[in-house]
Specification:
Chain lengths: 579, 615
């Protein structure tokens, strides 16, 4: 932890404006609130620690959603914009790009305060996308985030003043914080991606005390040779084991006291350049379950050995459900699954391949898996262990080999979040039909060739459209409905009104019927819908918020539909029913 | 004169462009090749898209359409040549406006943003800052084409706020605009390709085209401009070009040469030191009299003791000019005030036929020759920053009546026979270093945010600001560096808490029907056949008011100053309301007067309509 002496000095550089509507009745946010949030609030990335992205609010419903109207909008600061609003007690906290945080009156859109963290001018030399600021967390009276300068920090939610900051890593050692934290029993937990320069020590998930900023633990995703899993890297020296990042937001089960988080590919991606195609390189492309008190890895499941930058860091949905995978819909079922049994599962689409995996979340036992969008890298899944068996035709064995890989590194799945509705028992995922012609371009690892593959993107052969929303039963694995369209689709949110809200890279933001996928409302927001939709209520009125912008992923998807020409402005929009 | 555009040709090489070869006979032949791709980024439209179908059905805009526009269209800055800013569309009305919902929005290019959409046959044409023009499917918001003019990089050295691109005109198949580079130009409305361009003035001689033209029946494209002092009197011109060919038809100076009528009003100031009588807003046009009506700005410097003396008139500054549209000849002029404080009078002139019955309780200055109740063709509205309403006979320029709106302290009296203003002697500078409280400030009062007239209520509506300024005369002598030669500190009018007001005033009686006041400064208005008045403010609020009462019936927060001009149009029977946000010197200046309000500054276009099911 850095002494507050420095924090005060930094505050001078932060343009914190006087509060417009200072609330003196601010009730500190408790673990109880986070674990059972008021329906009116949206207190973390996916609203709840189980990552459902679901709000029980039902004032806006299938019957009246066609009347949804814009209430307010605000331009956001420039940079790569993938923000998620938090809403607590009528105040919205928005993570603008480049570590600018705003508190906004959630009913009117009026700015209350703004915190601007000083940006290191040379930051972009070390990190590819330092401006991304996907989400905040809230605890006590603090808004919590990670900075591009590699500090964890807390801002007073009432004033926008810096409360504490703790250095995680030197930003020149390449750990990128595109995502912010969640709070698990008073601990601020977050992962990060780790550029190769940072070596294995940059690939960590960390926990800080939300009140003081004191570091509680950090856990590496890359074992030392003498640690468990250390032998899965063959003869690669420890300092050359690189880039197993955790760049999305963990989920948390307070009952099991387990944090769930997913990891990325290694650098380079083709494994013939590391210690060979037969090694596992733990814990890349895995689901990790960590003890929230200690950070210890309690169990892991590696989804596949990844030669193509098909990361597996996305949201893990925690659901208690009857498990009855339908063999007609689900390709890979563990023979030990007893159909009809209710289990605590971890499910969803954790990686770019688009494959749904359902695991027992207490033990990590594999239950079932099935593909969604076309993929050609996983030949099969071992139904006992859940390990992916890679399609040997898609392996690289030397530089200069070209392979058609589906999906592309854009996904399939990417940072755009899916959602689960307890009303329908369905989970909904935004997916893309993409492939890439990948060429291996180097024989040996180097810092200059991050993944050591060159890709040319295309729409999946045989498909006309990029975007797909797939509604899948968590119980049976069956697809209930599918929405397909030309433009790539982005994050989703389900509500108690039976609605599914989601956007696309052509600026459309829509409300779908959760049961059928029918479009019940649509607006053209003019720019790629890149932020995460949320819903909240103030004084009994329900609002839906969404933001636009441009991101490397959405530009990549957009380039597949060149006849569609959306803008790329960073804006926040809030809708409600007419009074 | 249609002049060879050498520097542009050099930029566009190797594409061959047509140029007039001789005076008068400037017959333009077809383009040898389309404009170079560096200039226009016209992207092909998918042939099966609704946008492509709209373009196939695009009908050339005729004289008759300009005189009597389809209610579904919005073909010029204030929709009609009389500058009413009124549309008869009534699907959105007082009863249902609270249901109004966002249908589409689009990011606009960066720069000072005060744009007005044009809409014809379901296609919207939008003037983005920095001479970027977009054609957009008006129902869906899909981009059809985009034209990006290559603006010289050093343009900002020659005039302030160069990106401003307030409005376009349309005639035949052409979208018409003025460039920051000093050119008038036409784009093919169907493709976005450049069709013609004619040099008006070298941009390094400081004529700024913040406003585009109006196109008038007969195919003339008329526009004024402001003129920085470097350009001298020759830059201060209103011009007419042939809409089809780009041939220059006439240009009229606002500053007379020695030997011309009015020249004597400059005293001993040599011709080349008569500066900056600009016409930076959009003219109106009366087809019956075939006259253009346009207003002018202050001189540079503003204090007249530095410029031939405080007793001189300095024609035609701060005047209403009536020009013969055929020749550009000044038929009559009316000077509103000799201006020592940069209180320009270039704003929209409303052309109305009305009973003239000014109420002496409401109207301070009435010409005794007015016969109350007589129906006359008048030119009315608030032409200048002072906020005074002036009603003139539009055939003769005779003064009929005038009254104040917001507080002003520069005009002490008006001669009710001639209409000549008597300036408050306390507010006249006589030497450098004098400080005076001037109301309103250079922000206005009135400024470019436009008023509107509704024939339903027979009221005109004006966005006005309560501002004053402490002005200090800053020099003894005229110089290019000291443009106005006054230094100002702007403040809210003493005794007022609110900056923004809307005044609803009868053009017949001059009475105020209602007044709306609020903290944030108010921006442009539009009136509709649904009994609504739409208007925004510098704090991002865009509202629908009841024309009869001023009651707020609908409101949305657009997050940034609502700096563009609202319009309404219809496509396939559905009525839309469009408005845009962004920043400008004026919007930021007004926002500083209410520092607790902190809007953003995003350039964005918004389009609203009723939900499909409740129409």
């Amino acid at each position: 932890m850095r002494p507050l002496r420095l924090a005060a000095a930094l505050l001078l550089g932060a343009a914190s404006l006087p509060a417009l509507a200072q609330r003196d009745d601010f009730a500190p946010v408790t673990d109880e609130m986070l674990q059972n949030p008021d329906p009116a609030d949206w207190l973390m990335w996916r609203r709840t620690l189980n990552h459902w992205g679901y709000s029980p609010l039902d004032q806006i419903d299938r019957r009246n959603v066609a009347r949804l109207r814009l209430v307010w909008t605000r331009p956001l600061h420039p940079g790569i914009q993938e923000g998620t609003p938090l809403v607590y007690d009528g105040v919205m906290y928005f993570p603008n790009p480049n570590d600018i945080t705003q508190a906004i009156d959630a009913a009117t859109g009026d700015l209350i305060w703004e915190y601007r963290r000083p940006v290191q001018p040379d930051n972009a030399e070390y990190i590819p996308f330092p401006s991304i600021n996907r989400n905040l967390a809230i605890y006590g009276t603090y808004i919590l985030d990670n900075g591009a300068d590699n500090f964890a920090y807390a801002i007073d939610a009432r004033t926008g003043e810096l409360a504490w900051e703790t250095q995680i890593l030197d930003y020149r050692r390449g750990a990128q914080h595109s995502s912010g934290p969640i709070v698990a029993n008073g601990k601020v937990v977050s992962g990060r991606s780790c550029e190769p320069e940072g070596g294995p020590e940059a690939c960590v998930i960390t926990a800080f005390d939300a009140q003081t900023g004191r570091e509680l633990w950090r856990t590496r995703t890359i074992p030392r040779p003498d640690e468990p899993g250390g032998d899965t890297w063959g003869d690669i020296p420890y300092e050359e084991r690189r880039h197993v990042g955790l760049w999305m937001v963990p989920s948390f089960d307070p009952e099991l006291n387990l944090i769930y988080v997913g990891t990325s590919v290694t650098s380079p991606a083709p494994k013939f350049m590391l210690a060979g195609n037969d090694e596992q390189y733990l814990y890349h492309n895995s689901t990790l379950a960590l003890n929230a008190d200690t950070g210890e890895i309690v169990w892991y499941l590696q989804h596949n050995v990844d030669h193509w930058d098909l990361d597996h860091p996305f949201e893990r949905l925690l659901i208690d459900t009857v498990t009855a995978p339908d063999p007609d819909a689900v390709t890979w079922i563990n023979p030990r699954v007893r159909p009809g049994e209710t289990r605590k599962v971890l499910t969803g689409i954790p990686g770019k391949t688009g494959i749904v995996y359902t695991l027992d979340r207490a033990t990590g036992q594999f239950l079932w898996a099935r593909p969604t969008v076309e993929q050609n890298v996983i030949a099969s899944v071992n139904t006992e262990s859940g390990a992916g068996v890679v399609n040997t035709d898609k392996l690289f064995t030397a530089p200069g080999q070209t392979r058609l890989i589906c999906p592309s590194l854009a996904g399939g799945k990417n940072y755009h979040a899916g959602t689960y509705s307890p009303l329908t028992g369905l989970m909904y995922f935004p997916l893309q039909n993409t492939c890439q012609e990948s060429t291996s371009i180097a024989a040996r690892p180097s810092l200059d060739e991050l993944y050591a593959i060159r890709n040319r993107d295309q729409i999946t052969p045989g498909k006309d459209g990029v975007g797909t929303i797939e509604a899948i039963s968590v119980q049976t694995g069956r697809t209930a409905w599918k929405h397909e369209q030309r433009a790539g689709v982005t994050s989703l949110m389900a509500t108690g009104g039976g609605l599914l809200f989601g956007g696309d890279v052509n600026g459309r933001f829509r409300a779908y019927d959760q049961r059928t996928g029918e479009i019940l409302w649509e607006v053209n927001l003019g720019s790629q819908v890149t932020g995460f939709p949320v819903t909240y209520a103030v004084d009994g009125k329900q609002y839906v918020a969404i933001s636009t912008g441009g991101t490397p992923n959405t530009f990549q998807l957009s380039s597949l539909t060149p006849e569609l020409r959306p803008g790329s402005a960073n804006n926040l929009y809030v809708f409600a029913l007419p009074d | 004169m249609h002049r060879p555009s050498l520097h542009r040709n050099a930029l566009a090489a190797p594409s061959v462009r047509r140029f007039a070869t001789a005076l008068g006979a400037a017959i333009c032949t077809a383009l040898a090749s389309p404009a170079s791709p560096q200039e226009t980024a016209a992207i092909p439209v998918a042939p099966d898209s609704p946008a492509a179908a709209r373009l196939r059905n695009f009908e050339p805009v005729t004289d008759e359409m300009l005189r009597n526009p389809d209610p579904e269209d919005w073909l010029m800055w204030r929709r009609t040549l009389d500058s009413w800013g009124y549309s008869p569309l009534d699907q959105i009305n007082r009863r249902n406006v609270s249901q109004l919902t966002l249908v589409w929005t689009r990011a606009l290019a960066p720069g000072d943003q005060e744009g007005t959409p044009l809409v014809h046959d379901g296609v919207m044409f939008f003037p983005n800052p920095n001479d970027i023009t977009q054609a957009i499917d008006a129902a869906t918001g899909e981009l059809i084409w985009e034209y990006r003019r290559r603006v010289p990089e050093d343009v900002g050295e020659y005039f302030p706020a160069a990106p401003t691109n307030r409005n376009l005109a349309i005639y035949g198949n052409h979208i018409l605009d003025n460039g920051a580079d000093g050119y008038a130009y036409a784009l093919d409305a169907r493709t976005g390709n450049l069709v013609w361009e004619s040099l008006i003035l070298d941009y390094r001689r400081g004529a700024k085209n913040s406003s585009g033209p109006i196109s008038i029946p007969g195919g003339k494209v008329i526009s004024g401009r402001s003129c920085e002092p470097e350009g001298g009197p020759e830059a201060c011109v209103v011009t007419a070009f042939d809409a089809e060919t780009g041939r220059e038809l006439w240009r009229t100076r606002t500053i007379p040469k020695p030997g011309e009528p009015g020249s004597e009003t400059w005293g001993d100031v040599p011709y080349e030191k008569r500066w900056h009588v600009g016409m930076w807003m959009v003219p109106s046009y009366d087809p019956e009299t075939n006259r253009i009506y346009v207003g002018t700005s202050v001189t540079a410097p503003a204090p007249k003791f530095m410029l031939g003396g405080n007793e001189e008139q300095h024609l035609y500054h701060n005047s209403t000019l009536a020009l013969d549209a055929e020749t550009g000849r000044i038929v009559w002029h009316f000077q509103h005030v000799v201006d020592h404080w940069d209180l320009d009078h270039p704003f929209e002139r409303l052309l109305i036929e009305t009973e003239v019955a000014p109420d002496p309780d409401a109207v301070a200055w009435i010409n005794p020759r007015v016969r109350p109740g007589e129906v006359r063709k008048v030119i009315t509205g608030i032409p200048g920053k002072t906020g005074l309403v002036y009603t003139l006979d539009r055939e003769t320029g005779d003064f009929l009546w005038a009254r104040e709106t917001i507080e002003q302290n520069v005009i002490e009296d008006i001669n009710v026979e001639s209409g000549r203003a008597i300036v408050n002697p306390d507010k006249i500078f006589t030497a450098a270093g004098q400080e005076k409280l001037i109301c309103p400030s250079t922000s206005g009062g009135k400024n470019y945010p436009a008023g509107a007239y509704s024939p339903l209520t027979r009221l005109m509506y004006y966005p006005l600001q309560n501002t004053c300024m402490m002005s200090t005369s800053a020099a003894e002598e005229q110089s290019i560096e000291e443009l106005y030669a006054i230094r100002n500190r702007v403040q809210i009018t003493p005794g007022e808490e609110n900056v923004g007001t809307i005044h609803a005033i009868s053009p017949s009686t001059g009475r105020t029907a209602w007044k709306y006041e609020q903290r944030a400064g108010m921006l442009s208005l539009v009136a509709t056949g649904g009994g609504l008045l739409f208007g925004g403010d510098v704090n991002g609020r865009f509202r629908a008011f009841d024309q009869e009462t001023g009651e707020v019936l609908w409101e949305v927060n657009l997050g940034s100053p609502v700096n563009g001009y609202p319009v309404t149009y219809a496509v396939d029977g559905r009525q839309y309301v469009a408005v845009s946000t962004g920043g400008s010197g004026l919007a930021f200046g007004l926002a500083r007067l209410s520092p607790e309000l902190r809007p953003g500054t995003g350039n964005q276009l918004f389009v609203f309509a009723l939900p499909e099911r409740t129409r």
